[in-house]
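Posted in: Protein Modeling Q&A

I'm a second-year student putting together a small comparison for a lab meeting, and my supervisor asked me to include a predicted structure for DNA topoisomerase IV subunit A. I've never done this before, so apologies if this is the wrong subforum. The sequence is pasted below exactly as I got it from our records. If anyone can share the structure token output, I'd also love a short note on what stands out.
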Amino acid sequence: MAQIKEIFDQNFLEYASYVIKDRAIPDIKDGLKPVQRRILYTLYRMDDGTTHKVAAVIGQTMFLHPHGDASIYEALVTLANKDLFIEKQGNFGNIFTGDSAAAARYIECALRPFAKEILFKDEITEFTPSYDGKMKEPATLPAKIPLALVLGAEGIAVGMSTRILPHNLTEVIQAVHSALRGEKFELYPDFLTGGLIDVSDYKDGLGKIISRARLDITDNKRIVVRELAFGTTCESLISSIEDATRKGKLKIGSISDYTSGAVEIEIELPRGVHADDVVPALYAFTKCEVTHHVHCLLIVDRKPRVMTVSEVIDYHAVHIQELLKQELEVEERELLNKIRVRTLERIFIEEKIYKKIEDLRTVKEMQEHVHQGFKPFSGTEYEGELTDDDVERLLQIPIRRISLFDIEKNQKELTTMQKRLRVIAGYLKNLVGYAIDYLETLLRAESAQSPRKTEITSLDRIEYKAVALRNLKLRYDEKEGYLGTDLTSGEIIADCSEYDRVFYVAADTLYRTIELPKKLFIGKKVLYITVFDKAKMAEQIFNIIYKHKENGYAYLKRFRVNQWMLGKNYGPLLPAQGQLMNFFIGENWQITPIYKETSLLREDESFHTSDYLIKGSNTQGVRLKAKVISKVKLKEKNKDK
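Accepted answer (user: helix_wrangler)
Welcome! Here is the predicted structure, written out as tokens:
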């Protein structure tokens, strides 16, 4: 058994590690999940300036992705609809209406130049074997901007999850730019569906936001939805409105969807209903308002880590410097190699080293001749030793090229490359400045293409209980002992909404707080029933006059209720030897006793409740007088009770 447990533990850990690191959670370096990375890399490999059938892209991606074509298709369509890296051709669905994309064989796509600029550089990309070991794929792409924030991400792994909302491309680049300059920045989500958001609880990517649809009230009888809350579609919004209407949470006359290129959902209101009354209910009970909780979890150095948005930006402010440094070093090496090749060619041709090769018979003699011919120039005209590869390359220069060799043109090219080397050396000494210049170039190219679509504002909180329709009649039928909203007889206690709770004190002085019942038996005699209001209940003063069964003395008990867990019985409010005489609510009451012996009766004798302390509901009462009281008369202010 111990061996079996060890096997299961090991397998579970390997599975959990795989799902977390290689499937569900994006890597901070490029902000991509593996399937997204493989799609983009496949498009990069297939790039030839034309669009490709999505079915073909999926087929090529399957050489890298072991989870089937359906997951690749869905990920590709979702990524394409971000309108960032993939050029679309055909029906890729509609993010507003929720319509799905056409089949993969009918639609085409290609990689945008912007993606090639910021995502791909083979010389600085780390490659790993694909799942079957037959191909190579990038471990991460050298992304120069934090794509986790631009694209957003949502994934559920074993024991953890991530929820990152998408942000505006221009604002993300500006945030990295500010971080490089050591300036403060603020970054908040932005959605393609527009709408309004309240970011007061965003907590730098670890809190929540409230997203609302943008409503256009042209007159008080018609409401038009112009933009959607994030995460909703026209279909889901209309469905939520219809559902709320069926449940009696709001009143509308009709709803029509005219959405095409832009959202336009028209809500007509019935007679006697005005937009000012309906709008709060739309926010409270439909998908016109949605709350999104966020949790920024990313893979950092092959380990999951919770980060704030600011930490992600700061990470990429350092990461972009490293990427640009690697690119500059690659370019520097390439330029040095080109300069060396051009210099060797110039010496080979100008000094006519090639002339005597015609008289030599063996390759070895030719190679030795070239080595001897270059010795006078080593260390002055070129750096390092002349290698056999250099000699072989020189010997392969065709005679036509030698005869057409232009000394001045060659010198100009060498001068240009040397000038570029000096520029690169300057960039390497000031990587922060170079990164800032690079980002400013991106901003000039992309800012016009990426305007903010979602308006950041402060939204008033809608209390759904406050805006719910009070269209339910709560009744109590004393004859039958039933309480509920489905009763047709009995006293009407209050007009209620479905969110109301009911507080009542039963004849045995047990008290409860319950959900609004349709029909519930609570007894044929109830001391008190009301719609529960926590604030009012905390201030409400209850009064009980009870008689002790043994001595007949009357006691007054004054208290507040401070326990009301839903559905739980509390009490009884009377002591074991107590017999209820009166139950009443309020602070200022006059109590006039009627004694068992009429000779004790005094017209001017009375007690005032305000003279007695208010205690807890579990305490004993205070004796009114050491005489047997048969009953009392109650008077509140100027009203006889």
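A couple of things worth pointing out for your meeting: The chain has five domains: 33-142, 214-287, 319-449, 470-530, 533-641. Residues 309-350 form the longest helix (42 residues).
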